[in-house]
Specification:
Elements lengths: L15 E6 L12 E2 L3 E6 L12 E5 L4 E7 L5 E7 L1 H16 L3 E6 L13 H7 L13 E6 L2 E7 L3 E5 L7 H22 L13 H30 L7 H15 L3 E3 L7 E5 L7 E9 L6 H14 L7 E6 L7 H6 L4 H9 L2 E5 H11 L5 H9 L4 E6 L2 E5 L2
Parallel strand pairs: 1-3, 1-4, 4-7, 7-10, 13-14, 14-15, 15-16
Antiparallel strand pairs: 2-3, 5-6, 8-9, 9-10, 11-12, 12-13, 16-17
């Protein structure tokens, strides 16, 4: 799987770093970087991980992520089979999204000779050399047209940050690639300088009533977004029990038992996998003795016996329920596949005999989903714990106690 990481050095403050990505996929040879006082162009091969977050702009041709194969059909027609390099595409997509959020810009080189320049001739040098267009666009109201052929739009920009220009090159030399990159970068930077007007801070002292209302609404929405993001992260943290073991698994489980189910939890010794649920009173009477474990294998008899040993060590009777939460088959990926893992019948019977409730982490997550709307989650789980042991099996359709 290809990852996009930041390995490029940060450019000087007044120098803009531009990444020209994937030119080798359209037949151009990758040249060495182009260094100028106002910009630096890094030419990055397709699939490379060297795509830095310090870039102010990125340029890439269309069609480099897709593979199209044409086949003749038995009836004399043609059929196209399209596939794509999804991991690479997603990596670049994430980088482009972050770049735009940070105020950067991108140029997409789409593939007729352009004979009209409605917004001036800043792109004329580029278009004359490489502006053969095979893709045409309808014009939304909020874009500026950069190039047309006859009445068809073949180049446009949006917000001086997203540029789409026609592209076709029959030359492959590194010098040609450099010339292409420099001509395009100079045009974009000059265009952005002309189009960008920034208000100095003191202008903000004057505000319209409508502006004030919108700013208040914006602040409230931003606060709401932060709340939503925090809530989403909270749910995501709970799913750590599917992919962790040891102290991380124990910590995630304790948080679930406390925050979601409302139990008072004594995590006992750090570095150990045991815990106990206690009454939320001064007496702290033990409700349940628990054990949490992560393993690439399945549940073993010894795991169940450990819960019983914890009870003995704490000096509580076998009438106090035991709980074994196990993240089993950790090497199995996929929710469905993880849910399909099983617990041997003899282990379920043994757990029933020792008054221990077996719960896989996937079971616990499904149980949480089924009890999300319940106001008495704690009481529901307490009833399951006191049901005599066995396997608490949960899935998309519901949950049940399997006694063995």
């Amino acid at each position: 799987m290809h990852r996009i990481v930041d390995v490029m050095s940060r450019p000087p403050k007044d120098q803009e770093l531009v990444v020209a990505y994937g030119f080798d996929q359209v037949g151009l040879r990758i040249p060495s970087p182009v260094e100028r006082p106002e910009y630096r162009i890094e030419f990055v091969q397709y699939g490379s991980s060297e795509l830095g977050t310090n870039a102010g702009g990125i340029i890439f041709p269309t069609g480099i992520f897709e593979h199209v194969e044409y086949h003749n059909t038995p009836l004399g027609g043609r059929r196209a089979k399209v596939s794509c390099d999804r991991p690479i595409l997603l990596g670049v997509e994430r980088h482009v999204t972050n770049l735009l959020r940070a105020g950067g810009w991108i140029v997409i080189l789409a593939r007729e000779i352009v004979d009209e320049f409605p917004t001036g001739d800043g792109y004329a040098p580029y278009v004359k050399r490489w502006g053969i267009a095979k893709t045409f666009f309808e014009k939304p109201d909020d874009v500026r047209v950069l190039a047309v052929v006859d009445d068809a739009i073949v180049g446009f920009e949006f917000g001086a940050r997203l540029f789409v220009l026609p592209f076709l090159s029959t030359e492959t030399s590194t010098e040609h690639a450099k010339e292409l990159g420099e001509t395009l970068v100079r045009a974009v930077l000059e265009y952005r300088r002309k189009m960008r007007v920034e208000l100095p801070p003191w202008v903000a002292e004057f505000q319209f009533v409508g502006e004030q209302e919108l700013r208040s609404e914006q602040a409230a929405l931003q606060e709401r977004v932060l709340q939503v993001e925090s809530g989403v992260k909270s749910w995501e943290r709970r799913k750590l029990i599917l992919v962790s073991s040891g102290a991380i698994l124990k910590e995630a489980l304790v948080d679930i038992l406390k925050d979601f189910f409302g139990f008072a939890v004594d995590p006992l010794d750090e570095g150990r996998e045991d815990f106990k649920l206690v009454e939320d009173t001064d007496a702290k009477a033990v409700i349940t003795v628990g054990e949490v474990k992560g393993t690439n294998g399945g549940i073993k008899r010894e795991h169940i016996n450990q819960v019983d040993s914890h009870r003995e060590r704490l000096g509580v009777s076998a009438d106090v329920p035991g709980l074994l939460v196990i993240n089993n088959q950790m090497d199995v990926t996929g929710i469905t596949k993880r849910h399909e893992t099983q617990i041997a019948a003899e282990h379920i019977r043994h757990a029933r005999k020792l008054n221990v409730l077996l719960v896989r982490t996937i079971d616990l997550l499904y149980l949480m989903r089924h009890l999300e709307a319940e106001s008495e989650r704690r009481a529901k789980v307490l009833g399951l714990l006191r049901s005599g042991g066995g396997w608490l099996s949960a899935g998309p359709a519901g949950y049940e106690l399997v006694p063995g």
